[in-house]
Amino acid sequence: MDEPVQLPADTDRVLTIPNLLSVGRLLCVPLFLWLLFGRDSRVGAAALLAVLGATDWVDGFVARRFGLVSELGKVLDPTADRILLATAAIAMWADGAVPGLVFWPVIVREVAISLAVLGLAAAGAARIDVLWVGKAGAFALMFAFPFFLLAEAGLATEDLWRFLGWGCAIPGVVLSYVAAARYIQLVPSALAARGSSEGVAS
User: pLDDT tens, 59-87?
Assistant: First the structure.
């Protein structure tokens, strides 16, 4: 018996659940800032940040599981991650909740990646798709930051939260830089494939 043919996903779709989740993360950035600075609620800001970090995993799972991967999503998802991660890092640095040993590596890496993305786009290079190791690093950091916030929230369990924060931050930073090194290796292929709409396989 012939095996059923699997139809390719419609990558031109815009209104998909994963894309809506990515947009939702972006729309929640002002809410996070309001909770942290407007309401002075580190617990509330930490809870929201943890939920947003979880949705990053959910939208990727839904996209792959139900064939909802789209070209827009391949750009929107990492963009939302980068904006949320950078905003959280800068806001928490201003609040005094994130250690400098975590803040500076994260910010330097995000600025460098953002500039590289803009430079490659200006050069007409093919898009470099997000690597799983980079997503894993971002996922770990998106939980490290809430833990650091809880460690400064005046709770009796502050030592536990700080321990968990470092436990997520160290592998998160390491994985993010491993991903950055891999992206650098893919740059020649992206430049060689300039003008291609499919990007570089990852």
Answer: 777 877 877 778 888 888 888 989 999 99
What distance in Å separates the CA atoms of residue 109 and residue 106, rounded to the nearest whole number? 5
* Contact predicate 53/111, CB 8 Å: no
**List of residues 6+ apart from 16 with CB closer than 8 A:** 63, 68, 70, 73
pTM of the model: 0.85
- What the block records as the tokens of 68 is 């909802």
Residue 101 to residues 120, 121, 137, Cα–Cα distance (Å): 29, 31, 16
CA dist 184 and 190 (Å) reads 10
- Cβ atoms of 73 and 82 closer than 8 Å: no
Domains of the chain, by residue range, sit at: 17-191
CA separation, residue 121 to residues 8, 69, 82, 175, 202 (Å): 26, 21, 17, 24, 18
Class of domain 17-191: mainly alpha
